[in-house]
Amino acid sequence: MKSYWIKVYGCQMNERDGEIIAGLLEEAGYYKAPAMEEADVIVLHTCCVREKAENKVYGRLGQLARLKSKKPDLVIAVGGCMTQQPGAAEKMREKAPHVDLIYGTHNLHELPQLLKKVEEERRPVAVIWEKEGPVVEGLPLRRAHGAKALVTISYGCNNFCTYCIVPYVRGRERSRRPEDIIEEIKALVADGVLEVMLLGQNVNSYGKDLEDGVDFGNLLERVNAIPGLQRIRYMTSHPRDFTLKLVETISRLDKVCEHVHLPVQAGSNRVLELMNRGYTREYYLELVKTLRQYIPGISITTDLIVGFPGETEDDFQDTLDLVEQVQFDNAFTFMFSPRKGTVAATLPGQLPLEVKKERLYRLMEVQNRISRVKNEALVGQELEVLVEGPSETDPEKLSGRTRTNKLVIFPGPEDLVGKLVKVKITQAQTFLLKGEVAS
Ligand code: SAM
Ligand code: SF4
Ligand code: F3S
């Protein structure tokens, strides 16, 4: 029997792909290696959303070249978003000739056959489908988490935000049929899952490509009705497609958690338009107001990009001002990274790294202060936490998340893992809360 090791880069979509790759390999007779160095097959499932993500993969491939020189039978497979870009496979062939198999985003399910081909023919193989095929259902899956599960509801994206590579490497939006999603979640619940995260690049446009008129609100209603399921999360929500009807639906579904990840990207209308986001700052602020009115206590997180081509200091001030006005619970902040093939990579006014860095730093300073104040307001409260396991930073303690997606660390016995417990918050930091099990 041969063993495998998978390293996943990028977003939750990729994390979920990683679970499918593990499932496919186990079905084909492989077992999970105890460490990367001991594996017979190493799979890097990559991301290319920013240049940094690609550099990480090449860094790891350098390390694997040394490992392979000691273990010539090692098979290295690289695939996912990075290799799906035009010309990427050729570049990888040149820069990393020790890679045995290159696959794309659309042919994951072929991985076992492709690995067999590599082993039989003893030569490198590259198979990348240029275009997405129909949604493939029924793939095996080896889930990484116990009581929490990722469930993809749609693949790809139709939005073409001008900075973003995702629509090019993940193809057009394809929704899974609601029946398939419900079946999958029922099976997960039977397997002990309490919380599902519904995944899509834009969950709010779920169902637009299906014929039965189902939309994201209908899907949430059906998932909410599954007995035994306790919590429903969803991401990512595109502000443009977040209708009042959907806000109302969410507000009355008891299992849908009080958290929304609502990327705004920028606070300047001029930049939002250049980004092709399809909304204004005024619209966004109004949406935030509505969400807070209908769903009291909702936590709102976002993504922000600084240094978009042509972004002036005034534009950037608009972003800072929006961040102050909204008071996000947390924000993922990025420096604009030009991606080949996207519109923004060719726009005039590309900014020097120094300017981007300095703006990122100022933005993070503002947001970190807000995150801390928001967390401090929770001290003294008793919050429901789904216990995930030992804390990564403090393995003596347990960690889990509140319905509002706040990370909580607290002492407690291991048999709480996988359960919902009430935790009294005793201390707040910028990125986490500390507490004790409420008696
Ligand atoms: N579909 C989601 C959305 O609409 O927000 C997530 C897309 S992407 C996987 C996650 C985040 O990466 C985006 O929200 C954006 O802030 C950031 N991002 C995408 N392309 C980028 C680029 N070229 N440079 C910097 N950040 C980028
Ligand atoms: Fe990229 Fe925009 Fe699609 Fe999100 S909505 S994946 S940012 S193109
Ligand atoms: Fe995700 Fe990166 Fe691909 S963010 S969709 S893995 S480009």
TrEMBL record:
Binding site for [4Fe-4S] cluster 1: 11, 47, 81
Enzyme Commission numbers on file: 2.8.4.3
Catalytic activity, reaction form: N(6)-dimethylallyladenosine(37) in tRNA + (sulfur carrier)-SH + AH2 + 2 S-adenosyl-L-methionine = 2-methylsulfanyl-N(6)-dimethylallyladenosine(37) in tRNA + (sulfur carrier)-H + 5'-deoxyadenosine + L-methionine + A + S-adenosyl-L-homocysteine + 2 H(+)
Subcellular location(s) of the protein: Cytoplasm
Keyword terms of this UniProt record: 4Fe-4S, Cytoplasm, Iron, Iron-sulfur, Metal-binding, S-adenosyl-L-methionine, Transferase, tRNA processing
Any Pfam family: UPF0004
Residue ranges annotated for the Radical SAM core domain, each copy included: 143-374
Residue ranges occupied by any TRAM domain in the UniProt entry: 376-439
GO molecular-function terms, A-Z: 4 iron, 4 sulfur cluster binding; metal ion binding; tRNA-2-methylthio-N(6)-dimethylallyladenosine(37) synthase activity
Cofactor note: Binds 2 [4Fe-4S] clusters. One cluster is coordinated with 3 cysteines and an exchangeable S-adenosyl-L-methionine.
GO cellular component, one term: cytosol
Chain sites annotated for binding [4Fe-4S] cluster 2: 157, 161, 164
Known function: Catalyzes the methylthiolation of N6-(dimethylallyl)adenosine (i(6)A), leading to the formation of 2-methylthio-N6-(dimethylallyl)adenosine (ms(2)i(6)A) at position 37 in tRNAs that read codons beginning with uridine.
Family assignment from sequence similarity: Belongs to the methylthiotransferase family. MiaB subfamily.
Name of the molecule in the record: tRNA-2-methylthio-N(6)-dimethylallyladenosine synthase
Organism: Thermanaeromonas toyohensis ToBE
Lineage: Bacteria, Bacillati, Bacillota, Clostridia, Neomoorellales
